[in-house]
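To whoever is on call:

I kicked off a structure prediction for a single chain this morning and the downstream step that reads the tokens threw a length-mismatch warning. I double-checked the sequence; it's 396 residues and nothing unusual in it as far as I can see. Pasting both halves so you can look.
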Amino acid sequence: MTPHDLDLATAQLDPPFAAVDLAAFEANAADLVRRANGKPLRLVSKSVRCRALLERVLAGTGFHGLMCYSLREALWHAELGTSQDIVVAYPSVDRGALRELAAREPARESITIMIDSPAHLDLIDAALGRDHPRIRVCLELDASWRPLPALSGLHVGTRRSPVFRPRQAAELAENVLSRKGFSLVGLMAYEGQIAGLQDRIGTRFRDGLVTWMQRRSAAELAERRAEAVRAVRALTELEFVNGGGSGSVESTAAEPAVTEIAAGSALLGPALFDGYSRFRPRQAALFALPVVRRPNRRIATLFAGGYHASGAAGASRLPVPALPGGLSLSSVEGAGEVQTPVTGAAARGLRLGDRVWLRHAKAGELAERFTEYQLIRGDRVEEVVPTYRGEGKAFG
């Protein structure tokens, strides 16, 4: 979409506001399906955080079910009928939400919660009582890479499950199966060091090292994940084995042991997805800020804009000026709570009231800043839809 189309479609709106280019969004969804090569995709809700967009994706082909990041979020979607196949990707210690899950039979049939320790089962028993209804659970296998397994401190990837070895997965599965009130239905492993790490953003040496690590890690994980699945399936049948993320769709899809792939961020094409060699999503989500000051000829100051992404603090977590081209953030101020200066050749031509379009570093977190998205097709707004925030929902 051109700056002209964006500005024409939203001419009657006063920024700040956020927009989604539907053509880019749909193209990104189709590309994820292509990359999955026939394996179903489970839609990661935290990467979108807008129910209307989630429903658009689930209504298409190639996607089935949701992966939520909060049990309360999953309960909300189950009640509204967004999906009847929901996996909660992170363990929950929310006793009120667990009691609500146990009390609602349709929700119990739709929602699977994550565990990685007998302590999670103990907590559920304590919250619900020993004779609670049957709860669907998924076992999480740690997918990080340990180049020297004997040195557990050498860890490449996200810090998630303590279950690393296939034997540990089998032991936890045996513990689940020995208890009343639980059904083990799935196994999950998220390879963050592959799915969430760009391999084309630095020096040739840095990028080469990342590429080497990701290849070695993918090969190790494919073997270990398959062995863990065999070990658990020797004890009980599994409905699904979930893996991957938007950045590792190809390698995860190639694993016979994996039955579905989690993905979502690539739908909106955030700035942190600009540095992958394997794919390049289109820029689908942007937000507009107005020029409110001209401190000098070289600088235009925008209203607000301090929409930093989660993760380790650094420049990669800042929003990125997108349109007009040739703008950059000030290295001194960055993106601020009340103002964001931009510099560059294009700044000289900006006037008070002009718009600058920016992209968030991450996908779903933009929805935490705006109550609605303008869904744009061509040069018109096709629909205005609420984000989670616009529906009065905040799940942490």
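Update from on-call: the warning came from a stale cache, not from the record. Cleared it. Sanity check on the structure: The CA atoms of residues 42 and 64 lie 5 Å apart.
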